[in-house]
Amino acid sequence: MAQPAEASLDLPERAKENIENAVKEKKPKKEKAPKPPKQPKEPKESVTKPAKPAAAAPSAPTDPEAMFKEGWLAAVRKERPADEPVVTRFPPEPNGYLHIGHSKAIAINFGFAKFYGGKCNLRYDDTNPEAEEEVYFIAIEDIVRWLGFDPALITYSSDFFDRLYELAEKLITLDGAYVCHCTDEELKDQRGGTDVKNKHERYACKHRDRPIEESLAEFRAMKDGKYKPKAAFLRMKQDITDGNPQMWDLVAYRVLEKPHHRTGGKWRIYPTYDFTHCLCDSFEGITHSLCTTEFILSRVSYEWLNNKVDVPDKPMQREYGRLNVTGTVLSKRKIKRLVDEKIVNGWDDPRLYTLVALRRRGVPPGAILSFVSELGVTTATINIQITRFEQSVRKYLEMTVPRLMLVLDPILVIIDDLPDDHYEELENGFGPKDVDMGSHKLPFTKKVYIERDDFREVDSKDFFRMAPGKPVGLLKVAYPIVATSFEKDESTGLVTEIHARYDKPAAGEKPKKPKAYIHWVAEAPDHGSPIKCEVRVFNPLFKSDNPDSVEPSFMADIREDSLKVYPNALAEVGLKEIRERAPWPEQAGEKKEKCGPESVRFQAMRTGYFCVDKDTDDETGKIVLNRIVSLKVDSGFN
Ligand code: ATP
Ligand code: MG
Q: I need a surface site. Which of 15, 202, 440, 594 has the fewest CB within 10 A?
């Protein structure tokens, strides 16, 4: 959907098309600001306030339907007859990949229709041939389906070009539009001028009163290629005395010389958002046209045009608050720069907040929907830090994905007093406490790998993991081990091997309880252990919470160390079964045949949540894992 003229400082591409309609300047002093249209009343107990950050302890995920049952959306539903079937649309402009903010629009439009037993169309708002590309059409549909929604219809604004043209002629005939030849500057001047200090009364364009027949002839001439871009426009004849800039004779059609990806060279004139959206809504029988609050002033022009040409079923526009995520950039132009300058590896780089990136990073679709639902829907814009989003994802994964052990940066531990051929199979449950996800056999042998961070060459009182002479538990293993000596590589200074003994109690003695348990994987090649992996850990791409405000640009806010790769990580054998049994979470309804590798999701005990990356290649045996989120909010940078 195109942005209205006053939308944001970061002018989306499509808004530039409507430059003639741009009314960024402040309104003249004396004039009353236009009253925003009435919003449905929100019941007191509505989910208006964003919920507090979720506590670390597991809690029930938010009811994903709560946002439709109560609050703003429930009130919007009540504005139309209860027996009228709900029809909505999600209207992206196919000029880029969708981002996390769009997931709110998808959840609202598709979810609202689904909840009330209605239908939602996916409508490509493709009225600007200058910005659209085939790849975006495919990616958008793919992401909508990935989020779990099936469009009732897939439509294109361009499918309606003939009907829109007919209505434009009708509008002219009704004395509701005229062809204008003014420049951008002249348009601005008619609307009161751009100089804030020197505002003057608005005045009508000299073309406004030309005869209907003349406008009709000129409009046809525009269509037939008589005019170059900007040499002629069709403008709606609204009410320039109205306080609402959306009534100041908006542009309905403009000349563009670019062929359209669907209609080819058929058209030389293209309708604007303001002309197209309300009419397409009525063509599709949309009942609730839900959009973001930047469009609030457009509600008047939306209704004006539908009434003027008298479309049969009048849709209703209502506006909800945008979802912005801070600590990252969402603008297409900025992400494109990150991609072009190879700061990230493509639009689906897991450090980005495009939906393709979140999918690749392993964030389940259900977690995104439950995040949106947790925030609730109101007219207020919501600014959320990425850490808050991650907390919501963590909460979602906690009870729904299996657990296993993964060592990111391994050191070999040789348990000297176990026989060379020692082989034990421990039973390892996949599920968290109280959740049955089955179990698997975990080999335990004389040689195990532990995390480099879990060993210290010199012990200290505040350190509870492995150090010379100190017993430490290996998760699931009966008795602790105690480090007896270690070897180091002189050139790197890194520990290469630790020797340990098995701290089995003598007969009659009580087993000792270690202060801490660490994760590990065993060397048992005959039993497929360990499984070698490359692990990618993603940290924030930007240093500040608001990269958009950094001078001279957001590029100065980029962190050097946002991607950390562990090339020699080792996973325990359970990974094989977890891959076979994917998708995880099991109950989330993702269809196996439609799932990518990212649906293999698990918790690596003590380490974080991970998924399989698309760079995995089973032919060559290369497995790549992505960290979805760390285990705790404060587990910090690594
Ligand atoms: P952007 O310029 O950030 O891509 P947009 O509004 O131009 O945003 P569209 O593809 O035109 O993006 O938007 C499709 C739909 O998604 C519109 O209804 C729009 O209002 C909605 N939408 C876009 N961004 C957000 C957001 N951050 N929060 C909620 N809804 C959004
Ligand atoms: Mg846009």
A: 594
